[in-house]
Amino acid sequence: MLKEKKQEYTLRISQANKSELVVIIYEILLDYLKECRENIQKNDIDAFHESIRKATGCIRELSSSINYRSNVSGNLLSLNIFCIKELAKADIHYSEEEIMNVELIMRKLYEATKKAGEKDDSPAVMNNSQFVYAGLTYGKESLIVNLNETSNRGFTV
Length: 157
Prior knowledge:
By secondary structure, the protein is mainly alpha-helical. Helices cover 63% and strands 8% of the residues. It has a single domain (3-117), classed as Four Helix Bundle (Hemerythrin (Met), subunit A) (Up-down Bundle), CATH 1.20.120. Strands 1-2 form a two-stranded antiparallel sheet. Helix 2 packs antiparallel against helix 5 and helix 4 (73-93) packs antiparallel against helix 5. The longest helix is centred in the first third of the chain and has 25 residues, at 18-42.
């Protein structure tokens, strides 16, 4: 994943609520699955295995975020386990077919989670993080990012 993409996700994570965090993890997962397919096309085996490892980590993180009091929790966990097994097969066989199966399932779950998350108006999970305001100024394509510095960033007591 490119450095700029990581910075974008970091910024979004710092200002996200619980539902938005899950949506972001799905987006990161989909990026890693895309990377897997690109690495197969480039014939970069080491990068392929690394992308598979990171995608599997995302699915494990999604599994740990399941609310087990929900009626659909068992189904979500089963889908996640299936996808982890498919990624393991893809890793062993250096195959794109299993990756596409996982991507199809996860894209549908992403869309459903994103739609459900739009109703969540809870506050951001991280407190004392920087607020970032961006806008176009002084020209058509010059982007100025202003950080609102707070005197008390980090942990509070």
